[in-house]
Amino acid sequence: MAGADDHAHCADRAGEDVPVNGDLVVQRPEGLYCPPGDFYIDPWRPVARAVITHAHSDHARYGMGHYLAAAPSEGVLRSRLGDIALQTLAYGERLRHHGVTVSLHPAGHVLGSAQVRLEHEGRVWVASGDYKVAPDPTCAPFEPVRCDVFITESTFGLPIYRWCPDDELFADINAWWARNIEHGRASVLACYSFGKAQRALAGVDPSIGPIIVHGAVQPLNAAYRAAGVALPETRMVTEVKDRADLRRCLVVCPPSAAASPWMRRFGDAQVAFASGWMQVRGNRRRGGYDRGFVLSDHADWPGLLQAITATGAQRVIVTHGSSAVLVRYLREHGLQAEAFETEYGDDVVEADLQAGQEEAA
Questions:
Q1: Using one digit for the tens of pLDDT, what is the confidence trace for 13-47?
Q2: Which domains does the chain have, with CATH numbers?
Q3: CA distances from 164 to 91, 116, 190, 282, 294 (A)
Q4: Which InterPro entries match (predicted)?
Q5: Do 233 and 206 form a contact (C-beta atoms < 8 A)?
Q6: What is the separation of C-alpha 252 from the centre of its chain, rounded to a whole number of angstroms?
């Protein structure tokens, strides 16, 4: 998309009562495709031109000829995908390609996450990628974008999912960590390395004790810090000089590490899992964790409805998650709603927990 027709500042409202003459986004085997623009949004097969909403591996995959993404995501994209042909846009900046005006707007999901706004012949579509509406100091806040058609995720698209305020959540995490120190044991917080780990680090109280991160988390921390996000001091376990620190530290690591020999150096540690799936009773036990904390980078049920309403869209297309439930709810409330089949989803551990929850439901 390097040969854009023009750049300008983005208007944020769709035209009123514009007739639809062909969809701006359709499903193809490679991913979600924009026919007039001849590009894909978060494709899961190699294509010539890809607009990327964020750097999670189910949305940003290697092998595309050209990538377009929001400027704040550059560091994490290059950290995860290496040397790629990447073009970036500032939030709200417009790019015109084959008659389609493209702009990227904050999604509030992780650093650099963006909603993709497409405008063509008076029609406006927005593809959300993943998003959350709750405040998060590690990324730009979600920005409602007016549109005719809204493509929304539904990872937590069930009414049972309702997040508590961050101050309550992190007070619980800090108290758990402090209690473990009193018992002379480490506190291991398992969470996704990109996004959730940094949000957890930004929310805990570093005065409680030392913080150790896994090797999968450290380079992403560096990308966040390079983007101006404030995170507390963290160390790799190989950098720990005083072995007593291993019995009072907070360890932030991916779930796979929490079940690996890497954990042996921390002795009799307490292991918690930070995930939105912890909202459902039984998921912590199935995962074998001592504790579960409900921490998600996605919108909960009220957040999804809030975001959809704010767009003003009369047509909503639902992607991954509990799409059938959300589609039915939206139809019952007077919207034209349908679902796209995609290959998006959370990391393997969270996907396994979702499968177990759906079986229980």
A1: 333 333 345 899 999 999 999 999 999 999 999 99
A2: 7-160+297-360 (3.60.15.10), 166-293 (3.40.50)
A3: 29, 28, 19, 19, 8
A4: MBL (IPR050698), RibonucZ/Hydroxyglut_hydro (IPR036866), Xnuc_lig_assoc (IPR026360)
A5: yes
A6: 18
